[in-house]
From TrEMBL:
<keyword id="KW-0723">Serine/threonine-protein kinase</keyword>
<dbReference type="Pfam" id="PF00069">
    <property type="entry name" value="Pkinase"/>
</dbReference>
<feature type="transmembrane region" description="Helical">
    <location>
        <begin position="326"/>
        <end position="345"/>
    </location>
</feature>
<keyword id="KW-0812">Transmembrane</keyword>
<keyword id="KW-0472">Membrane</keyword>
<protein>
    <recommendedName>
        <fullName>non-specific serine/threonine protein kinase</fullName>
        <ecNumber>2.7.11.1</ecNumber>
    </recommendedName>
</protein>
<keyword id="KW-0067">ATP-binding</keyword>
<dbReference type="GO" id="GO:0005524">
    <property type="term" value="F:ATP binding"/>
</dbReference>
<keyword id="KW-0418">Kinase</keyword>
<dbReference type="GO" id="GO:0004674">
    <property type="term" value="F:protein serine/threonine kinase activity"/>
</dbReference>
<keyword id="KW-0547">Nucleotide-binding</keyword>
<dbReference type="InterPro" id="IPR011009">
    <property type="entry name" value="Kinase-like_dom_sf"/>
</dbReference>
<keyword id="KW-1133">Transmembrane helix</keyword>
<dbReference type="InterPro" id="IPR000719">
    <property type="entry name" value="Prot_kinase_dom"/>
</dbReference>
<feature type="domain" description="Protein kinase">
    <location>
        <begin position="13"/>
        <end position="264"/>
    </location>
</feature>
<dbReference type="InterPro" id="IPR050660">
    <property type="entry name" value="NEK_Ser/Thr_kinase"/>
</dbReference>
<keyword id="KW-0808">Transferase</keyword>
Amino acid sequence: MKNIAEFSQQYEIDYARPLPARGLGSVYRVKDQEEQLLALKVLELHPNFDDGLFGRLYEEAKKLEHPHLLPYQAVHIFREEEVVQYYILMDYCAGGDWASRRSQLTAEEKLGLLQELLKLLIFLEKEGHCLQNLKLEHLLFKEEEALDWQLINYGAKESLPNYFHLDYAYLAPEQLQGQAIGPAADIWAFGVLLTAFWTGQLPFGQKSPQQTNAKIKNRILKGELPRELLRRLPLELRYLVEGCLQKEPGKRWPSFEALAAAWETGPAKDYAQSWEAAPAAEVSVLETLAYMGQEAEKAEAPKEEEQSEKTPFLERKFKRQKSKPITIWEILLWLGGALALGYYLSSLS
């Protein structure tokens, strides 16, 4: 296939209803000549940013076979003037992602899905693939009512540049610092994913206009566990996550097989003691709000309210309110009342 025009002759692309992008590029429903429904990812890059990385990623992915890996059917690369376009065809999943359906799942179903995911990650680890971009949005249910699922991102055997990631919520500290990437980065991401899947909150914040990548990066690099959020996890899962979210890669679980073994054996009996009420200096309300992605409330609070919080209680209680300017409607209301009163008094005389 030489160009996009030839591609469009073989596939009907539904541009009117795009699918969630889940990363770089755009995703659409397409039908082939046999009316089979597929998903199409379209990625446009300037030649200066394209060294064949994305082509290599998908070609390596096509070599892997696993029930929970979404098949990539074809990768077409078109070069038109100053743009390199990737057209990637894959199976269509209609059931939404793990993030969108987590609230509908029972605790037992969540545990089952996480254990299945862990087996897949062990498989990819043995194949030498480092995902580097593991997130809930890349785990798709094939059907709306079923729990059969597939992963749409198989990772790579080479480090991915940071422009590959549109948000930093799942990235390990070494990724953000531009260091060499290894399996420990996926161990970190699994800890973030597990926490988000169970609690509905990302440990270091959800990207938004208020929660920028820079703010999320700063929290990750601080290397502090979001303890108040992790307390919402069952003890055995908290034990796993704590071993994932260590700032130093060497202090995390050494592999997904080791993580699976730790899950099976569970924490030591005295592990719960380390999670007793933390000292007041360690747990901060502001830090807890930040970890749960609510720092925007602080940023958007009115300045007068911020000032009142710094004013002693008695001074606030008896402080006079600032006078408001009189509006034209208030003047007209007063005049109307005066005229009505004058008419009433004149009728009495």
